Amino acid sequence: MTALPDPISPLSRESAAQAFADILDARTSEEAIADFLLALSDRGETSIEIAEAARALRARFIPIDAPANAIDVCGTGGDGHHTLNVSTAVSLVVASCGVPVAKHGNRAASSKAGAADTLEALGLDMERAGAMAQQTLDDLGICFLFAANHHPVMRRITPIRRRIGKRTIFNLMGPLANPARVTRQLIGIARPDYTGLYAEALEQLGTEAAIVVSGEEGLDELSGAGPSVVVNVGTADLQRRIVPEDAGLPRHPIAAIHGGDPAYNALALRRLLKGESGGYRDAVLLNAAAALVVAGHSPALTEGAAVAAEAIDSGLANALLDRWIAYS
């Protein structure tokens, strides 16, 4: 078995690349991997280490092809607020506005209902959705890239992460390893202090345009309750601090978007797409507005929120969900 470097000090790009290649290619023991990941987490990962971990995972995923203007809307999860599925709803709304969305996601790890769980409760067959991801992206402008289908090398790492029982660098990997190789993203992180570090990693990975956001209360999306930290990457150009009023939207307490099990979240998402008003709708409009700006589809948050609201109120987003389910 290959020995991993001692991460007491930041790793060079070459050392980090080799370490994550050894981890993902099973050239080192599970005990050594656990010790390495814990030591990185305790010391605090660098942008180079995050970028090289993502690069190693990208080199080993099962890809699909996406249009140049495709976008992903994804959070790292783990914010502990157990909210409704905001990024999943945003993906449907944005796709119904004509922006291709390659949604990367998984089942719940720390929440009650992940994107895959809620979409499944809505009637999407996860196995068929995964197998037909390329076709639905081409035909409908949306697909769900179920992480378990596209990252076979993670099968060995997942049990190790569960045994560790705390955040590691792999909790940051989802948005950085989209199998459609999107270059435009809205990424939510549950740790405001990591937004700058994460943005640096995205720049090293050649991202064309992205915004990394974190609600100041530790929400892995733009918060509908108050201010959010924003860091621009590439050609993205939003203000560094966003409040709901910047998109012409009112504030709501986080309790307004508290979720439940997959059936509960699915029902809430369907009601939202049928025009129900409230905190969930406004959180989705705020994040959809930011995604539409990053995609180059809207010039500013207020215009993006209006476009997103029209996509819901006209029935386009709900109809898209129905057509997607019909494919499965």
Description:
The chain is α/β, with parallel strands linked by helices and 328 residues long. The chain is 45% helix and 11% strand. The protein is built from 14 helices and 7 strands. It has helices at 13-24, 30-43, 47-58, 86-96, 115-122, 126-131, 133-140, 147-150, 154-164, 195-204, 262-273, 279-294, 301-313, 316-327; strands at residues 71-75, 101-105, 142-146, 184-188, 209-215, 228-234, 241-242. The strands form 2 sheets. It has a 5-stranded mixed β-sheet. Strands 2-3 form a two-stranded parallel sheet. Helix 2 (30-43) crosses helix 9 (154-164) and helix 12 (279-294) packs across helix 13 (301-313). The longest helix has 16 residues, at 279-294. It is globular.
List its traits.
single chain; 328 residues; alpha/beta; 5-stranded mixed beta sheet; two-stranded parallel sheet; 45% helix; 11% strand; globular
Average predicted local confidence, pLDDT:
93
Number of helices: 14
- Main-sheet strand order equals 1-4-5-6-7
What class, by secondary structure content? alpha/beta
Keywords: Amino-acid biosynthesis, Aromatic amino acid biosynthesis, Glycosyltransferase, Magnesium, Metal-binding, Transferase, Tryptophan biosynthesis
EC number: 2.4.2.18
Binding site for anthranilate 1: 75, 106
Binding site for Mg(2+) 1: 87, 221
Quick summary of this structure?
The chain is an alpha/beta fold and 328 residues long.
